[in-house]
């Protein structure tokens, strides 16, 4: 399931200090203030477009910290997106977070292998169907939509799609940049 385009030297890495513009520096400072850490992962290539990075970071913070979904559900959706895009960095960062949040190891393993997990809670089952159907078919059937709507309401459906889309966007950035996984972290085969 890995993609050939992921191999090769890293691209769009950190901007050398001597090439940072005032906008880059402002974006980096805003990230540091909101996240409490230096720019990392997908935000390194995104910093090449400072406004995109700041807006993407704000959306990501909302989706991970304040969406209607508790971490064990949002992290499952992140893993589904990472698997779909064969995104090693995203997987290496979020798999341990997902496990700590309560995603069962066998669920993470099945997602990593590209298989439907056998044991999912009702909420996980609905989100798995919604996210995988959207990623695989670029749409959602009436039946899948109705189940998600009944379980999570309109806001939940929008936020589930937003989480899937946001982490897909980050995966595309990371794949384009060829960002390697976190050393020693869990990776996809």
Q: Ranges with pLDDT <50 over ≥5 residues?
A: none
CATH top level of the largest domain? Mainly Alpha
Order of helices and strands: HHHHHHHH
What's the number of domains? 2
Question: How big is the Rg?
Answer: 17 Å
Level-2 CATH architecture of the largest domain: Up-down Bundle
CATH evolutionary superfamily of the largest domain:
AhpD-like
Largest sheet: none
Give the overall shape, derived from the CA principal axes.
globular
Q: What is the tally of beta strands?
A: 0
Approximately what portion of the residues adopt beta-strand conformation? under 5%
Would you tell me the structural class of the helices and strands?
Answer: mainly alpha
Overall mean pLDDT: 92
Q: Enumerate how many helices there are, as a single number.
A: 8
The portion of residues assigned to helices is: 55-70%
**CATH topology type of the largest domain:** AhpD-like
What separation lies between the terminal Cα atoms?
A: 7 Å
